[in-house]
Amino acid sequence: MIQCKTSKEIGGMGHSLKRKEDARFIQGKGRYVDDVKLPGMLYMDIVRSPYAYAKIKNINIDEAMKVPGVVAVVTGRDLEKYNLHWMPTLMSDTQMVLPTDTVMYQAQEVAAVIATSKYAARDGREAVRVEYEPMKPVIDPYKSLDPDAPVLRTDKEGKKDNHIWNWKVGDKQKTDDVFAKAEVVVKEQMHIPRIHVASIETCGCVADYDKVNNHLTMYMTTQAPHAIRTVIALVAGHVGLTEEKIRVISPDIGGGFGGKVPVYPGYVIAIAVSFLVGKPVKWIEDRSENLQADSFARDYHITAEMAGTKDGKILATRFKVLADHGYTDASANPSKFPTGMFSIATGSYDYDATYMECDAVYTNKPPGGVAYRCSFRVTEAVHAIERITDRFALEIGKDPAELRLQNFIKKEDFPWKSPTGWIYDSGDYHKGLLKAMDTVDYHQLRAEQAEKRKRGELMGIGLSTFTEVVGAGPSKDFDILGIKMFDSAEIRVHPTGKAIARFGTKSQGQGHETTYAQIIAEELGIPAENIQIEEGDTDTAPYGLGTYASRSTPTAGAAAAVASRKLRDKARKIAAYLLEVSEDDLEWEPGKFFVKGAPEKSKTIQEIVFASYTNHPPGMEAGFEATHYYDPPNLTFPSGAYICVVDIDKETGAIHVRRFVAIDDCGNIINPMIVQGQVHGGLTQGIAPAMYEELIYDEAGNILNGTFMDYLVPTAVESPKWETGHTVTPSPHHPIGAKGVGESPTVGAPPAIANAIVDALSPYGITHLDIPITPFKVWKALKEKGAI
Ligand code: MCN
Ligand code: CUN
């Protein structure tokens, strides 16, 4: 009898396989877009606006054209001739590629300089003279709705104000009634700051238009190659660039975090120029451009309210949001959900009355809307519910852990329908929180805190017990620009039993080359090391919507499992033929089929695959290939219980995160080491907005922290020792019971930190502080309350 290797030996699911891709990353062998060098390639640099709102009176390119190496300067007027000066955003709004008359935010693209080297392009950029007539910008989103505020989007016919859309969900009447009668009502006004993903690699592309074949190859840093191909075809189809003539290649990506989902004007300009001059054009942003002009995240002003009983039962919540979208709504949301999945804001708690409303407005700031490890606005939702839950606990003097345990949805109540209509697939919130409490020794910490309070020392303990919602999504509700949000896997097994599998997603560092191979290994018994994973080339990969919103595992991961199972069904037929038994007489164990009761009669998957090319049953299609487009029946609902402990220096406001325990539940885990890595990175990106990061603008719309000197990205020095762990509540509808995890820590961490800091300061009457909570903010609050 042939002894099959164990799941661990073949690198199946649940094992901490070392990441296959790291061999090339750590040896400098990654191939990023800036590594693409093509014969005759030109370089592009972009002139950007110093003003937030100004009329362009004149663009003088004479001096720039004299710079040695400069071959062209492209303006909005040039693009206008080809009707390429506007493009759609992913939220079906519109956006200038280059302006013809007016600039709408600081750092907006104004003109592009094309040259034979990147240095000449930069020199040319400095020599372009633009005459502006500055106007008074709208910066404060609250003022943008004032009747006397200038209407910014004059390009939209008949537009009379700066309002973009109004969105509401929940039962207003029912909720208002509960609030009116409630024993306890708490309310806080919160701002979730505008922040920016600072991936190591900035955005960029090489547009390579081949005039002879009318074919565009677009190398670019995109998280969603297929969707981008479709968008390019929509924008440039009228000049003959139809979808079959476009190949998007997303090579290795040095971090995306959401910032590489949108379509930036730079991409479109590079394509236009390559199309017009017939040469490849490279555009790579510098760090400041990336920070100042690329898609921002968050910027939600939220009024959160909670109603409940004196003994701690949550009865209702109300959320009113003002969303500052900047110049255009360029969010990357599913079409039907302009606020993304914000409506998960009822959280992990069992109550049935909620009402949420959001108004989105235009201002003179860069566009964007969801990027930065956010799960489509779940960061904002979780911050609101977790902060207001702590506020409620504080109001009634109840321990916030006890209050949560009292209100959690019980594990036997899943699937659970939330008052905003989500069907939570599964969860065990009590188990997660109890594990986190046990890990930190919660009761001991509370005792220590009580002692310290007697001495006037500031120690705080903060909780966040969040529900995530990822895996967009079921096609009945989820699309982007009309394209349904399924995802795909195509597996080809070669005659010798080694495979290549391609996906519609695109890793930016998440480790897909390893984890997808593990899923297929587990399902088919082919060792993971013999399964090559490929993503990011639209000519070879099946159509998919890409990697964001922690959707790869819920969608493409599921597709990998289902495609593998299709192959296993075929393998069973071949094995039956080879062993001359009926299919029903066969049993599967990873790596082989054997005859029931006669285990010595077996065929390994390698033998079966070989037979599929050499000796397949008559009438059966040869070869060993399967494709699956997976349309999930529901989203997956990961969860987490985080506890943060802080010590605060009263005199300086300095905050020291003493401990941070994160217990995540992402269902069945494919690779524990990778999940832990995801959680470590995500937590660091959670502490970022909680304590450091915020894009700040003055009244004139100048960004005040447009470089890394002032925009504080946390490093290893600022990061506490993350203590991670997990509980496992498999998703009942996902083929391998997995839920996404990539964004959970960033979603869950900020309120744990904010709650810990406010907990430390609460004896002095402080009930809320907006993130990022800096030492100065703490010191100022203490001073105002007379504590120091
Ligand atoms: N995983 C697992 N078991 C699970 C769930 C996930 O082993 N039950 C593994 C997956 O196989 C995958 C990784 O964890 O290798 C993340 O999976 P998933 O949660 O499905 O998320 P995605 O792969 O779709 O990644 C997207 C997510 C997002 S939206 C942002 S933003 C983010 C994040 O991933 N950007 C990242 N993590 C990042 N990590 C790196 N290094 N770089 C980025 O840009
Ligand atoms: Cu919102 S950041 Mo991730 O979805 O790419």
From TrEMBL:
The keyword Oxidoreductase applies. Keywords: Molybdenum, Oxidoreductase. GO terms for molecular function: anaerobic carbon-monoxide dehydrogenase activity. The keyword Metal-binding does not apply. It comes from the Bacteria. It is an enzyme of class 1 (oxidoreductase). Its EC number is 1.2.7.4. This is Carbon-monoxide dehydrogenase large subunit.
